Amino acid sequence: MSIETSIAALMASLNSALALPQQISDLAAAKVADIGNAYQSRINTLNMSFYIDSIAGDDANDGSQAHPKKTLNAALIATPMGGVCNIYLVNDYAWSDQINLNGRQVNFRSVGTRKSLKPIASTLVINSTNYRTMGSFAMSNGAAIKLYGVDIVIPSAPAGSEGYPYYGSAILFQGSGADVSRVFLLDVALNLPATPTAPLFYQGDAIIFVVYAMTAPNQPYLGKIINNITNSAGTSTSTLPYLVTNLLLI
Question: How many helices (H) and strands (E) are present in the chain, helices listed first?
Fold first, then answer.
């Protein structure tokens, strides 16, 4: 090999070595960009918004105002645990099953005129014992609910079931070990019948319950908020160690 060829080969090796830091830098920059894009994508999915039209919606839709979903379950499936699910109700929402919020914060708002959450009451038999029940939200793993101008209609106990115990039933249901559940009712009418199917809460763990401009136009809410607090004259919230609220009596 001639000296000229050796020098050329050496220069090529040198140039390749000199280019290596830049190649490493470019590769690292690309990886950082990929990580950043993945992180931003994950952040975007933690705050989701869906329009729900229980009459004309379709769960295959994207949940936009022009293409609303039909059920709350479909919106929750599209929101990761720990995320925020913003629900815009196109019409009243009625349901009969238990919907597990599983660590999500769900914010409800009305589209246009005021809308209502309307759990459906029913009865069931377990081991020859009759129970009454209704649609509910399972407040598991520190779930939270906020209602802004969305009313609640608690149904009357089904005819003939007035003396039945209620089974795992309340609009807001806490199982044992649910962690701290947070509930905010802002400008909400709580419509209560004389004999509700179940109270607002079935308490199993700590509750943060904040209300602002809440009304009860049909029946007083005292004694009808939490399953084991039934005094119609009201119970001082300062005596309930599991409850943090701005209400003095429930």
Answer: 2, 17
What would the two tokens of residue 236 be? 């001082």
- Cα end-to-end distance, the chain, whole Å: 97
Structure tokens at 136: 């509910």
Q: Which residue has the tokens 């589209």?
A: 111
Alpha helices (H) in the chain, listed in sequence order: 3-45, 72-77
pLDDT band (50, 70, 90) for residue 20: low
Output DSSP code: residue 69. Answer: B
Six token digits for residue 166: 């209620």
Q: Would you say 132 and 109 are in contact if contact means Cβ atoms under 8 Å apart? A: no
Secondary structure class of 204 (helix, strand, coil): coil
- Residue 174: the pLDDT is 86
Rounded to whole angstroms, the Cα distance separating 249 from 145 reads 21
pTM: 0.82
**Which of these, 173, 98, 182, 175, lies nearest to 144 by C-alpha position?**
182
Q: For residue range 46-56, what is the model confidence (pLDDT) as tens digits? A: 899 999 999 99
Helix (H, G, I), strand (E, B) or coil at 237: helix
Residue with tokens 């690292």: 28
Strand, helix or coil for residue 241: coil
Tell me the pLDDT tens digit for each residue of 72-98. 999 999 999 999 999 999 999 999 999
At 10, the amino acid letter reads L
pLDDT score at 231: 94
Residue showing tokens 């000199």: 18
